[in-house]
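Input (structure):
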């Protein structure tokens, strides 16, 4: 039986995630240090776990409203107002989703029709392009550059726009580079967005993991942008709640209303106990964020310096928990580097081209693991590079 006759051709032609490939290899080998997946090594803070446990013990396990618990939506709205000076009506401008990933999927499927062009900033997370293609949309890649600190410039944006452009995917703080768009950068691209009448999907899942004196700025806070932006965020990275699978979307009522309708058919509602735990996180989790951010910042500075010391040029990330060192000096492609590294030194990292063609010549290394694992991994990578030159 030829099953390919029955399977959607978009699925057949879709490449598997380049992130998961090396993670799967690492699982089958002994003594491997994996710095490949963005999985925080912190446990979900106890008071958040306790709230989830209490919910289960009380038997509060029924479906919630499709859009999520109103109590949670109010807390999300208050969080964005307090942190990012942007107000959303919890009644009809907030949708609770199964992770940020579902929010991205719902947003793209709601906005993109066959033939629409979607601008995707790369290097970036792996899901945007496949979802656009599943909708019959046309991904148009904008390649950011190291010399611009991997930020999107107004000139790059304007040159990519056509009469078919409908949506811009703006993924900052960025995975895999750790790049951040500052307010002045956002103001500059907002002028182009408004002039060209484009909608924006702003993936802000790493918003709270921004380093230095300047905190995250959402493009929705820029004048005239809230009404043309859907913000995606969640609890996985900020509160180390990856397995709780909880995210949210913020945006104009007409768009959120349609996303919620799609969410009703596809999901019904996000996990109930996760929603109660998230309420606790938003109300009492600021100290947890600070503790984790300080630790990540220490690992960030150590990892950047360590790669530079072993001879690899390394962009200094300003957000998220990844570094994106350049391995072009080794003469190996990103795939070759990662394959040889894991086989010879038992260290798993992700090839940069998993995040777009412009990621070729780089590797993504996550520093959301223990400092001891990072030290040992970089030591092994240093040995590997030294042996390549012998």
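Output (sequence):
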């Amino acid at each position: 039986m030829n099953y390919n006759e029955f399977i959607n051709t978009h699925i057949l032609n879709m490449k598997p995630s380049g992130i998961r490939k090396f993670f799967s290899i690492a699982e089958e080998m002994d003594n491997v240090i994996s710095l490949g997946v963005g999985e925080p090594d912190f446990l979900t803070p106890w008071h958040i776990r306790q709230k989830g446990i209490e919910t289960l013990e009380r038997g509060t396990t029924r479906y919630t409203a499709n859009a999520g618990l109103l109590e949670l939506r109010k807390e999300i709205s208050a969080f964005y107002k307090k942190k990012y000076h942007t107000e959303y009506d919890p009644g009809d401008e907030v949708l609770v989703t199964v992770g940020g990933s579902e929010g991205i999927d719902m947003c793209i499927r709601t906005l993109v029709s066959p033939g629409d062009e979607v601008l995707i900033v790369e290097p970036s997370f792996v899901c945007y392009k496949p979802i656009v293609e599943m909708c019959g949309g046309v991904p148009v890649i904008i390649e950011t550059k190291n010399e611009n600190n991997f930020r999107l410039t107004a000139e790059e944006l304007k040159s990519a726009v056509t009469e078919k452009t409908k949506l811009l995917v703006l993924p900052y703080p960025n995975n895999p580079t750790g790049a951040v768009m500052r307010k002045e950068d956002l103001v500059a691209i907002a002028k182009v967005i408004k002039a060209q009448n484009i909608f924006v999907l702003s993936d802000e899942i790493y918003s709270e993991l921004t380093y230095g004196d300047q905190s995250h700025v959402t493009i929705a806070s820029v004048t005239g942008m809230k009404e043309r932006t859907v913000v995606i965020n969640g609890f996985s990275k900020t509160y180390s709640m990856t397995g709780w699978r909880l995210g949210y979307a913020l945006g104009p009522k007409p768009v959120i209303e349609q996303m919620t309708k799609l969410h009703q058919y596809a999901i019904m509602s996000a996990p109930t106990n996760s929603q109660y735990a998230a309420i606790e996180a938003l109300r009492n989790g600021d100290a947890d964020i600070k503790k984790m951010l300080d630790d990540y910042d220490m690992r960030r500075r150590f990892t950047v310096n360590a790669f530079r010391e072993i001879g690899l040029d390394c962009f200094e990330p300003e957000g998220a928990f990844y570094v994106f060192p350049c391995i072009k000096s080794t003469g190996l492609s990103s795939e070759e580097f990662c394959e040889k590294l894991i086989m010879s030194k038992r260290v798993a990292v992700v090839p940069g081209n998993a995040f777009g063609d412009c990621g070729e010549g780089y590797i993504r290394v996550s520093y959301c693991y223990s400092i001891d694992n990072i030290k040992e991994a970089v030591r092994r990578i240093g040995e590997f590079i030294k042996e390549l030159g012998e």
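Notes: The first strand starts at residue 33 and ends at 34. The CA atoms of residues 18 and 185 lie 30 Å apart.
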